[in-house]
Amino acid sequence: MDQEKLTFSGLTTTLKAAGEATRLRILALLAEAELTVSDLTEILRQSQPRLSRHLRLLAEARLVERFREGAWAFYRLGERGGINIARALIERLDPEDPVIARDRERLTAVRAARAAAAQNYFARHAAEWDRIRKLHAADAAVEEAIRKALADRPIRALLDLGTGTGRMLELFAPDIERGLGLDLSLDMLALARARLDRAGLKHCSVRHGDIYDLALAPDSFDAVIIHQVLHFLDDSARAIREAARVLRPGGRLLIVDFAPHDLEFLREDYAHRRLGFAPETVTQWLEAAGLDVVRQETFAPGPEGKIAVSLWLARDPRIVLAQPKTREMA
User: Fold this and answer.
1) Pairing mode of beta strands 247-258, 221-227
2) CA-to-CA distance for 74 and 196, rounded, in angstroms?
3) Within a 10 A sphere around the Cβ of 106, how many other Cβ atoms?
4) Which of 2, 100, 234, 268 has the most CB atoms within 10 Å of its CB?
5) What three-state secondary structure class fits 314?
6) Exposure of 329 in the CB half-sphere (CA atoms within 13 A)
């Protein structure tokens, strides 16, 4: 991938921003995880106003990015600008250096606290999720079909809309360069972030986002997944159009959701807006969004189940002018 060029002035600003002890420590920490100011205060043992000033300078130099989740603001290494410079500097740091090692120990404690909070949330809701899971097709069979559906081409950037626990990011993590999950639920984001931290998936991240209004540029992702999300939405067609907007030429949109069923309690007790979708319904939405539907299949429920699960795979019809080599081509 080509590196973004900086002007002389821009490079000077970037180096000045990174060339300070606390700011370099912040960059080293953000290379490991997305953190809040409160997290950094606990790790670095400095005041919140002081750290906020450091973060502002790093953001102005485009070394870090800030994004909100409810009342919280998270920071991570910037995806453009001086990211290559930041990573090059961090790679030169001795991981056994006492300052870096101490910061990493405190980061481990912060992540453990996150994981504990996420586990408590999961424990409170596990019985509900297990009840629903038993009703439909086995997760293992559906996940195998999802992987096969997207296995024919490499994926540089993957977007998971309504990421929930982050399972789709975890599933595809070995095969992608970058993964992003969006969700409206702050509780689910905390759960997903803890899951990715536990798995050590630094190239995958999650953030708060609206499926109807993605704060993402067009042509940004090779693949988008909407897994078990449409049945919660009032306007599924609009969500599909927005997902199609961020696909690169030749990119793929994969949807997994329930087939039609009559379990009304899911609407009453679990906020399901739709009781499944007929194959032709989602196909029409995909085609209306300008995509070509290339696969549709349905999986029968398990022995105790009552709900079939359907999969749709659609492709952006625009011609791919330049494409990375596949393993077969190599």
Assistant:
1) parallel
2) 15
3) 16
4) 100
5) strand
6) 7
CB atoms within 10 A of CB 2: 4
Helix (H) or strand (E) holding 299: strand 292-299
DSSP string, 163-209: -TTSHHHHHHGGGEEEEEEEES-HHHHHHHHHHHHHHT-TTEEEEE-
Residue type present at position 261: H
Q: What is the pTM of this model?
A: 0.73
- DSSP SS3 for 258: strand
- Name the helix (H) or strand (E) containing 267: helix 265-270
CATH topology of domain 8-93: Arc Repressor Mutant, subunit A (1.10.10)
* CB count in 10 Å sphere of residue 23: 21
How many Cα neighbours within 13 Å face the side chain of 136? Answer: 26
Cα separation, 214 vs 182, in Å, equals: 9
Domain boundaries, the chain: 8-93, 127-315
Does the pLDDT value for residue 293 go beyond 80? yes
Distances (CA, A) of 212 to 12, 228, 233, 239, 240: 39, 16, 10, 5, 9
pLDDT at res. 82? 58
Of 192, 191, 10, the closest CA to residue 179 belongs to 192
Closest CA relative to residue 265, chosen from 176, 135, 152: 135
Mean pLDDT calculated for residue range 304-324 = 84
pLDDT in tens, 57-69: 999 998 998 887 6
Domain spanning 127-315 has what CATH number?
Answer: 3.40.50.150
Q: Does residue 180 contact residue 189 with C-beta atoms inside 8 Å? A: no
**SS3 (DSSP) at 28:** helix
- If one counts every other C-beta atom within 10 angstroms of the C-beta of residue 14, the result is 21
pLDDT tens digits for range 11-50: 888 889 999 999 999 999 998 888 999 999 999 999 999 9
